[in-house]
């Protein structure tokens, strides 16, 4: 995982942008980690589907850490960078960034390595065309 201080700008391309809503909070009013993972999975799926030219499934999520809380109303941006393309798999680092409530500076919230697999209509793996 990249160190937040060594990597002050997003890595990769913007794949998904959304707003953290009150419905995405737990009873204490904090945004759920699971909601963020869901957004990251969607962002990764968009990028992986483009690379794979069709249907993909998430096979693994590795090495995640939540670095800073997300507040309701924050614009949540997911950036994807393709790290590796195998026979059927695509490894993507997904980073989530928000802007600081105080000074508007971009802040990295979390990142994780997501592995997607290209699958056919029956759900079996398929080779990615290059
Ligand atoms: C967007 C969504 O659909 S989210 C839904 C949640 N995800 C799912 O339902 C997927 C459930 N899993 C599956 O259906 C199956 O595991 C499949 C079809 C994805 C893969 O089937 P497998 O029998 O594991 O395939 P196989 O062993 O050939 O591995 C396929 C590729 O995935 C890679 N892979 C498999 N497991 C892992 C893992 N845990 N971590 C990293 N890579 C992995 C393999 O290295 C291989 O890569 P390569 O083809 O580039 O060499």
Q: What kind of assembly state do the chains in view correspond to?
A: single chain
Bound molecules: acetyl coenzyme *A
Helix and strand content put the structural class at alpha+beta
> How large is the count of helical segments?
1
Helical content class: 10-25%
Which homologous superfamily in CATH is the superfamily? Hotdog Thioesterase
Domains, number: 1
Radius of gyration: 15 Å
Keywords:
Acyl-CoA thioesterase, 5-stranded antiparallel β-sheet, binds acetyl coenzyme *A, Thiol Ester Dehydrase, Chain A, Thioestr_dom, 130 residues, single chain, long-chain fatty acyl-CoA hydrolase activity, Cytosol_ACT, hydrolase, alpha+beta, elongated
Q: What features would you describe in this structure?
A:
The protein is elongated, with a radius of gyration of 15 Å. The mean pLDDT is 93. The longest helix has 20 residues, at 33-52. It has one domain (13-118): Thiol Ester Dehydrase, Chain A. Helices cover 15% and strands 41% of the residues. With 130 residues, it is an alpha+beta fold. Bound molecules: acetyl coenzyme *A. The site of acetyl coenzyme *A has 14 residues, from strand 2 and strand 5. Residues 10-122 form the HotDog ACOT-type domain.
């Amino acid at each position: 995982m990249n160190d937040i201080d060594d990597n002050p700008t997003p890595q990769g391309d913007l794949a998904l942008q959304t707003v953290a809503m009150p419905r995405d909070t737990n009873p204490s009013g904090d945004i759920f980690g699971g909601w963020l993972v869901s957004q990251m999975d969607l962002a990764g799926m968009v990028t992986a589907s483009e690379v794979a030219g069709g249907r993909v499934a998430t096979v693994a999520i590795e090495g995640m850490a939540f670095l800073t809380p997300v507040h309701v109303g924050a614009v949540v941006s997911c950036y994807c960078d393709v790290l590796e393309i195998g026979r059927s798999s695509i490894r993507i680092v997904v980073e989530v960034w928000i802007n600081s409530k105080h000074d508007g500076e971009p802040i990295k919230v979390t990142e994780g390595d997501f592995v997607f697999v290209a699958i056919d209509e029956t759900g079996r793996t398929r080779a990615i065309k290059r």
